[in-house]
Specification:
The structure holds 2 protein chains of 2 kinds.
Chain A (H helix, E strand, L loop, with lengths): L1 H7 L4 H27 L20 H5 L1
Chain B lengths: L2 H4 L29 H6 L10 H15 L3 H52 L17 E7 L4 E7 L12 E3 L15 E6 L20 E5 L3 E14 L21 E9 L6 E14 L11
Parallel strand pairs in B: 2-3, 4-7
Antiparallel strand pairs in B: 1-2, 1-5, 3-4, 5-6, 6-8, 7-8
Classes of the chains: A mainly alpha, B alpha+beta.
Chain lengths: 65, 295
């Protein structure tokens, strides 16, 4: 997979290394900006409120609306 | 190879095989025989004698021989996927523990500044305006916990996306979880905040001791509360802790209380920690900061 990408990058080894670095940074940016914020509420790590045990009830979710 | 090996004295199995021609005691190198089928599997580069077409065909044959089998390719892809997954998980941890705090501090700082700014410009409406006027997610106050060096804006509602994940402290304000405002004659001003990540305003709320001050600044007034008691662990479904007279707080009659809720143990959402306090001072902003905020 990565070998395939490396082989298809243009230029010599230095240019390839530079482009790969940019690709890695772009991937990290997409993850931090879009993927992780999306995934975070799906994971049960950070609930701090007391609610009536039914998250879909009029408790916390009503506020989100 | 040593002479002992060559003479067949070393391995019994070697006796059955034809021994290589015995060298004399000279140091000449023996000719290397091609060993076994494993070595000879890779075809040697054919000696090309013909024209261009034949050279090309030979090159294609060599390229086919170099190419990896599908099994090797598949296992390589699977391995790289696993490595990628591990890196992504590490990045997620970094995002949670570091980046959310960076973002939330920036957002909360901006909210607090703009709140201050709008107060200083003077909306002139005073703190007595109805709680219903605040829309969900709107900041309306700033909470200070001097002992913990905490300063965070308070916004209406406890929605994660709208309030808590922006580094703000949320005020329970809707439905059955509606709680009082500081300026109400009596009631319980209940707040929720992150223990970890997203600015973590309530990270060290477990270090508060009875008597420690919690100050809420609104447009017109500083409200000073004194911490009275703490519930280390309770079920997330226990909403009685934010009742007007909170259950388990030791308060017996109605009064002007504050409740802080956050999650415990740290980094999990299994239980909730609750800290209660009662109002001890109310000071117009025009008279300056309360004692608790003066060094």
């Amino acid at each position: 997979m990565y070998v395939w990408i490396w082989r298809h990058l243009p230029g010599n080894a230095w240019v390839k290394a530079l482009i790969s670095l940019l690709l890695v940074l772009a991937a990290v940016y997409v993850l931090f900006q879009y993927v992780f914020p999306w995934a975070e509420p799906l994971l049960p790590f950070n609930d701090v409120t007391v609610d009536n045990g039914m998250p879909v009830s009029n408790g916390t979710v009503a506020v989100v609306r | 190879m040593t002479a002992a090996y060559d003479s067949g004295a070393y391995a019994p199995g070697a006796v059955a095989q034809p021994l290589p021609p015995e060298d004399e005691a000279t140091m000449t190198l023996r000719r290397v025989e091609p060993e076994g089928p494993a070595r000879s599997e890779r075809p040697e580069r054919p000696v090309v004698t013909g024209g261009r077409a034949e050279r090309r065909r030979a090159a294609q044959r060599a390229a086919r021989a170099r190419r990896d089998s599908p099994g090797v390719i598949a296992s390589r892809v699977v391995g790289e996927l696993f490595i990628t997954l591990g890196v992504v998980m590490l990045l997620f941890v970094a995002y949670q523990l570091w980046w959310t705090n960076v973002i939330a501090h920036r957002q909360a700082g901006g909210t607090a500044d703009s709140l201050r700014h709008s107060w200083d410009k003077g909306g002139g409406q005073g703190a007595a305006r109805d709680a219903g006027e605040f829309s969900p997610g709107q900041g309306f106050a700033i909470v200070y916990i001097p002992k913990l060096d905490v300063k965070a804006p308070i916004a209406e509602g406890v929605g994660k996306h709208q309030v808590l994940d922006r580094g703000m402290v949320g005020h329970y304000a809707t439905g059955s979880l509606k709680t009082a405002m500081p300026w109400d004659k009596q009631g319980n001003f209940a707040l929720a905040g992150h223990r970890n990540t997203h600015g973590e305003p309530f990270r060290y709320v477990n270090r508060l001791q009875p008597g420690d001050k919690v100050v809420v600044e609104t447009q017109s007034t500083f409200y000073t509360y004194e911490m009275t008691s703490r519930l280390d662990q309770t079920s997330p479904a226990n909403t009685k802790v934010i009742d007007p007279v909170p259950a388990g707080s030791g308060f017996t009659g109605p009064g002007r209380y504050i409740t802080l809720t956050t999650c415990t143990p740290e980094f999990t959402s299994t239980y909730r920690m609750v800290v209660w306090g009662k109002m001890v001072d109310e000071r117009p902003r025009s008279k300056g900061k309360p004692d608790a905020l003066v060094e």
